[in-house]
Write a structure and sequence with these properties.
about 400 residues; six-stranded mixed sheet; 9 strands; about 65% helix; about 10% strand; DUF2130 domain-containing protein; DUF2130
Amino acid sequence: MTEITPTIAANEIKCPHCGTLFTVDEAQYADIVQQVRTTEFEHELHTRLAAAEKAKETEIALAVANATHQAQKVSAAKDTEIQQLKSELKSAATDQELTVARAVSAAEKNLNEAKSKLDLRAAEQKVKDAALKESHTKELALKDELIDRYKDMKAKLSVKLLGETLEQHCEIEFNRMRSLAFPNAQFGKDNDASAGTKGDYVFRDFSDDDVEYVSIMFEMKNESDATTTKKKNSDFFAKLDKDRNDKGCEYAVLVSMLEEDSDLYTGITDVSHLYPKMFVVRPQFFLAIIALLRNAAQDTIVVKAELEQIKKQNIDITDFESELEDFKSAFGRNYDLAKRKFDAAIKDIDVAIDRLQKVKDGLLGSENNLRLANDKATALTVKKLTKGNPTMAAKFAELDVPEELDAA
């Protein structure tokens, strides 16, 4: 195309070949410019139309290829996913059955182990009870032996006399007659101050069956015990009664040299109207009061022996009931523990079953979604793809897409 280059003058045109200037009027100039523009525009238009046509054909071919490839890819992926989900569903069902079977087997195993442990513990408890009873019997026999040895030792004890006091006098008098008149008796100082106070001496006599049938708490008071003021016998009654009750003695006797000039305390004086089973005696009547109270109590030996036997039986029954209650309590705790473990195992099984049921429901839901996706893929056609897109519809119409593609 010939290039027309305008000069400084608006109506002059320079020839590109010879360089000659031509002068034209405005109408001619406008006509020449219009011709030049029309030719260039048509040339450019034809060029762009050709390029657009070529690009359109390329895009159409690419769209057809992509649509075909996508349809094949969707179909293949759909088939693969369906097979995979079917396989997973079958595997999940198998795993569920296996898990339930294992859980049930474990629960049965735990239950059997708990029952075996309970039976074993019951047998062990019986053996322990028998061993404990035998041990108690041996301990009681040993204690009886120790008591006998202690009694014999006390019977053979001698008092080292440091002076002629009232306590020494009474102890010497008793020991002189012990083997003859009191072979089964105990007589000694009260050294137990656990109750806060203690008496001077305690006398206890026993039958041949080793049943205690008389007991006396003694308190010895002489004139030398007084300091600046004279004491009265009644000043010691309250403490003596308290010591008698604290030490479990039946009688209380005050051996006193106080109030020598009193007409009341001349021999054996009964003061039971003040304190129960209490007597005040002079030292020369010390053995007499023991013999008197012991002889009076000998008539009750049989009754006391029967009472002691009943008491021992009651203690045995109480101990047996206590041991039985302990066994029942221990057995109940073991049973409750086993039951809680069993209930926990059953609860775990229920939880596992619920969880597997949810997995199954999820897989069934996935299968339903796959069915819907398959239906949508089956219903997919080129017409539906090109709906609302006239350009693509026209291109597919020009390509004359067969019905099989629509069906795909």
